[in-house]
Design brief:
This protein has one domain (about 5-110): Transcription Regulator spoIIAA. It has helices at about 25-35, 60-70, 85-90, 90-100, 110-119, and strands spanning about 5-10, 10-15, 40-45, 75-80, 105-110. The chain contains five helices and five strands; from the N terminus they run E-E-H-E-H-E-H-H-E-H. The two termini are about 25 Å apart. It is about 40% helix and about 20% strand. Strands 1-2-3-4-5 form a five-stranded mixed sheet, with helices on both faces. By secondary structure, the protein is α/β, with parallel strands linked by helices.
């Protein structure tokens, strides 16, 4: 599935396909943000598209990527199962919990869970 902008609960969302380019650096995140320009308010990014270093908080990649989305006022939804990462890292589990309390970055199991957040 290619990346496509679709409306979910009245909100334009860039739904990224699992087979797209990996997000392994800040420039990759900026490319996704640029793809939303005047089209989408949220990027739904599959877990499979994120480089493994995103889940190792010491790398700083997760923070850099999430900050870019905040700076450009585009919400980020990481879609898919992150339970292996939360089980392996207390810090990552805390990050997921804190993000899900807010309104800018979410970790959701699937697009239906994203719909519930948007509704």
């Amino acid at each position: 599935m290619a990346d496509v902008v679709t409306e979910r609960r009245g909100v334009p969302v860039l739904v990224c396909g699992e087979d797209g380019a990996r997000v392994s650096g800040v420039q990759d995140a900026l490319d996704l943000i640029g793809a939303t320009y005047l089209q989408a308010e949220v990027v739904a990014l599959p877990v499979a598209r994120l480089d493994e270093s995103f889940f190792a908080l010491r790398s700083g990649l997760a923070g850099e990527i999430m900050q870019k989305f905040v700076n450009y006022r585009v919400r980020l939804a990481v879609v898919g199962d992150v339970s292996a990462y939360t089980a392996a890292s207390t810090a990552f589990r805390d990050l997921v919990r804190e993000c899900n309390r807010g309104g800018r970055t979410w970790f959701v199991d699937d697009l239906e869970a994203l719909d519930a957040r948007l509704g």
